[in-house]
Amino acid sequence: MTQQKLTTLTPQQEQAAAMLASGRRIGATAKAVGVHRVTVWEWARQPEFRQHLNDLRRAAWCSARDRMRENAVGAAKVLGNILSDPSARAQDRIAAARVVLASAGPLFPDEGSPDRVEARGLSPVRPERDWSEIAMATARRAVELSSQYILVATTPGAAWVESGLADAFPDSFEQVRSLSAKPAEVEAYCHDLLAQWRDALDGEALEKASKTDGG
What we know:
The protein has 10 helices and no strands. The protein is extended. The protein has helices spanning 11-21, 26-33, 37-44, 47-84, 90-104, 131-145, 156-163, 165-168, 172-178, 183-214. α1 (11-21) runs antiparallel to α2 (26-33), α4 (47-84) crosses α10 and α6 (131-145) packs parallel to α7 (156-163). Mean pLDDT is 78; it is low at 1-5 and 114-125.
């Protein structure tokens, strides 16, 4: 049985999506796949292309996060081996000890420090941001990128509309709401949207410049 293709994107579009997901800008991507950068910008506005791009970005983000976790475990084992190895040079054991102590945080926090008692020796954990806080921050950033002066709206939904994200990415706010119980996924999704927003603004600027030059 042959494997069914998951998308109807052309190979050229799939290559462009992969390049954008890896952090390449629209101009460089367009040049590599042999199209005008406005074409790539128009692809990025198509729901299927956008969904495929988001899937690639999320997969890359999750893969990088998992690799960093594995590397952190490996690094801890290396430091532990050096500390427990009596044949290791004294300067190497001291250097490893310094790294461990620096990573663990202050052993003797100042009076009144939130990590003074039970959490002594550990850096305080930053509370996970609420989805609505992430949405508001995303809308504010979108406004900044488009050179608008100020975001007046005070609720996430209204801010999404005012910033232009609702028009540029239909159903995106509903997607944010659907992930409200998973703030980390909301943050990753909003990060992807802002990357697409920057690319869309680049495309609009280029289109305006082309019309001006043509006139």
